[in-house]
Design a protein that fits this description.
Distance between the termini of chain B: 37 Å
Number of strands of chain B: 0
Oligomer: heterodimer
Helix content of chain B: 55-70%
Number of domains of chain B: 1
Structural class of chain A: alpha+beta
Order of helices and strands of chain A: EHEHHHHEHE
Structural class of chain B: mainly alpha
Distance between the termini of chain A: 13 Å
Largest interface: A-B, 72 and 68 residues
Order of helices and strands of chain B: HHHHHHHHHHHHHHHHH
Strand content of chain B: under 5%
Number of strands of chain A: 4
Strand content of chain A: 5-15%
Radius of gyration of chain A: 25 Å
Helix content of chain A: 40-55%
């Protein structure tokens, strides 16, 4: 568990995505690992800059899809062959081509739900509280038109005074301390 | 496509990119945010909204009355009988589901094709999908006669040990439509999460902050979150694309798997899907044109959007025309007496008028006029045309369902069909419900995806100078 009081990190505000990416890339190069960027729309280059290249959403989606496919096909087979066999105009009880359609739909259903809820779970959402919202300039900017870089206190390189002057070398609009 | 040389000084061209501009010049991150959030967060609701929702609410109430009476009396209050056992309920079901398909097409297929012009219209097109699916899903449920036993369609372990019959296309429908509804809602909600974050942060009142704060699930715009979010959106788009094609295909199987002349044909799946997209884009225009005028969104939903929708309608309209042509051709080429009689009966039988309504509304009017750029950019014309196509597509389903059923193989079993007032009340009631839900959406949810619009603004371009500096 992270500490629940004290400083969460230092938050630098930028006006353009270009400035943010430049700062994030430099910070990553200088050895920062506990850092994050906040942007009002997806900025792929910023994720790359802080070393976040791949994620597990595709794997979860694949697993969900295969699970849905298998579950539905087996359910249909079990129902039609064993649990409740019906003679419909003499057609075989194991009519696998007919079973493909619901199985196909469930593949999509489970893959889609896994993608959506897997993404939220990996992101740690829903979360009712996060310290960055304590920064006075965060709420008006991060979801509208400002770009933020946060160097977190959990990083071994963190020191309130020197990190602040380090961030100021990137010429941000402002640097503020974020409390838990 | 892009073989023509574009003149960079033409007014429609963005000088920064050399591409056709889809958003009016002069918009910034903040102006877009304010424009869209203010529609929702203002305490002043326009009077016109109240007037419209009163009318739509009256329609929805009429639906409630009609369905209540249906549940009390049974499906006998409708005109369905032998031989026409599928009447308005199935026509409306297919019509509404078809309308929904354009929303998924815009949100999923155009995303995969990187058609960024879709960003302005995808949110309300998705909302349209969901409300259309709500209206559609109701019909099979109330058509079964005992809607309180609707759960028998699901494979649930009952005490009576009865299980569904998976070899029937009607059973496939259950899974296709329920999956479609679920995935559409999830995709729509997921798309709104970042915008709910913006709404939460822009809201002034405590109630709105809590409301949008909870809906935003604590979104803070971390780029790690964005990366997963983008992956999930892309995957959902990739999944919704085959889904939307499969849903109307499965619905067409309801007809095509039957042996009835006029239904038993392999052209149905592609022809149904194209027709769905055709009518869906018409409905997008029916909604978009008044909406952009009423809320002054001309800078975000530009003439170019309406123009592009017109082009999609032109293309899908021709696929539908091919479907009609193929039906006529097969009626002759199959050398089947029953098939050729069914076609003759459709066009010249006692209900032949409905066939000519459909030909006029779906082919004669749109496919001759949509070629003209001037007409595609005339808002009044496109609005009227969208209504015409929606009427035409309703009649297409009427022709398929009713004229095929009234006269099948055996002349002694021929009959006719005349809808009752309850049929009309249910149908117009769903239109009321649809408009009612849509008005609620427009008032309380962000109807244009802000985060996606931001990516298209000049401010989102990362300057090459900066990239080169940082690249090393």
């Amino acid at each position: 568990m992270p500490p629940r009081e004290g400083t969460y990190g230092l938050l630098a505000e930028f006006d353009t995505p270009g400035d943010l990416i430049r700062a994030a890339r430099q910070a990553r190069q200088d050895g920062w690992r506990r850092l994050d960027c906040y942007t009002p729309y997806p900025v792929e280059e910023a994720a790359e800059a802080i070393g976040f290249h791949r994620n597990k959403v595709p794997l979860l989606t694949l697993m969900g899809g295969l699970l849905g496919l298998g579950a539905m096909f087996l359910l249909e087979t079990w129902i039609s062959v064993w649990a409740f066999p019906l003679n419909i105009a003499g057609r075989p009880t194991y009519s696998w081509p007919a079973f493909v359609v619901p199985a196909y739909e469930w593949t999509i259903l489970w893959a889609g739900l896994s993608a959506a809820f897997g993404m939220l779970a990996l992101n740690g959402l829903p979360s009712l509280y996060h310290p960055v919202f304590n920064a006075p300039n965060f709420r008006n900017g991060a979801t509208t038109d400002k770009f933020f870089l946060c160097l977190e206190a959990l990083d071994p390189k963190f020191d309130p005074a020197s990190t602040r002057s380090y961030l100021e070398t990137f010429a941000p609009v402002s640097v503020v301390e974020v409390e838990y | 496509m892009a073989t023509r040389e574009v003149n960079p000084h033409q007014p429609g061209i963005d000088p920064a990119t050399g591409e056709y501009r889809v958003i009016a010049p002069g918009q910034t991150f903040r102006s877009v945010t304010e424009k869209i959030t203010r529609i929702v967060l203002t305490p002043y609701t326009p009077l016109g909204w109240f007037m419209l929702i009163a009318v739509a609410g009256a329609g929805a109430t009429m639906l409630l009355v009609a369905v209540t009476w249906l549940v009390l009396k049974g499906v006998g209050i409708w005109a369905i009988t032998q031989p026409v056992a599928w009447g308005f309920a199935i026509i409306n079901f297919v019509w509404w589901i078809g309308i929904g398909h354009a929303g998924t097409l815009i949100s999923a297929i155009l995303l995969l094709f990187k058609q960024s012009w879709r960003n302005s219209i995808n949110r309300f097109a998705e909302a349209m999908t969901i409300f259309a699916v709500i209206c559609a899903g109701m019909f099979p449920l109330i058509h079964v006669g005992r809607p309180w036993l609707g759960y028998w369609l699901l494979p649930l372990p009952f005490t009576m040990q009865v299980w569904p019959q998976f070899r029937s296309p009607l059973m496939w429908d259950t899974f296709a439509v329920s999956t479609y509804a679920t995935i559409s809602v999830v995709f729509w909600y997921l798309g709104m999460i970042p915008d709910f974050g913006t709404m939460r942060d822009q809201a002034r009142s405590k109630a709105a902050q809590y409301f949008y704060g909870l809906l935003s699930v604590g979104w803070r715009g971390s780029v790690r979150h964005w990366a997963r979010y983008e992956t999930a959106s892309l995957l959902l788009a990739g999944l919704a694309t085959p889904l939307v094609l499969s849903v109307h295909t499965v619905i067409s199987f309801d007809f095509a798997v039957a042996i009835l002349p006029g239904w038993h044909t392999t052209i149905f799946p592609p022809y149904f899907v194209a027709g769905a997209i055709y009518s869906g884009f018409a409905m997008v225009l029916t909604l978009a044109i008044p909406l952009r005028k009423f809320y002054h969104l001309e800078g975000l939903v530009t003439e170019r959007h309406i123009d592009n929708c017109g082009k999609v309608m032109l293309a899908t309209g021709f696929i539908v025309a091919y479907g009609y042509g193929m039906e006529a051709f097969m009626a002759w080429y199959s050398a089947s007496h029953w098939e050729s009689f069914t076609f003759w009966n459709r066009a010249f039988g006692p209900m032949g008028w409905s066939y000519w309504v459909l030909i006029t509304c779906n082919l004669a009017i749109p496919l001759t006029t949509l070629w003209s750029r001037r007409l595609r950019r005339s808002m009044l014309f496109m609005f009227v045309l969208s209504l015409v196509v929606n009427v035409g597509m309703w009649f297409e389903r009427f022709v398929i369902v009713v004229t095929s059923l009234t006269r099948d193989f055996l002349p002694s079993s021929w009959g006719t069909y005349r809808a009752t007032k309850w049929d009309y009340m249910t149908y117009f009631g769903t239109i009321g419900l649809f408009v009612f839900l849509f008005l609620l959406f427009v008032r309380f949810l962000p109807m244009i995806p802000m985060s996606e619009i931001r990516t298209m603004l000049p401010g989102a371009k990362i300057k090459p100078k900066v990239a080169a500096e940082a690249g090393d």
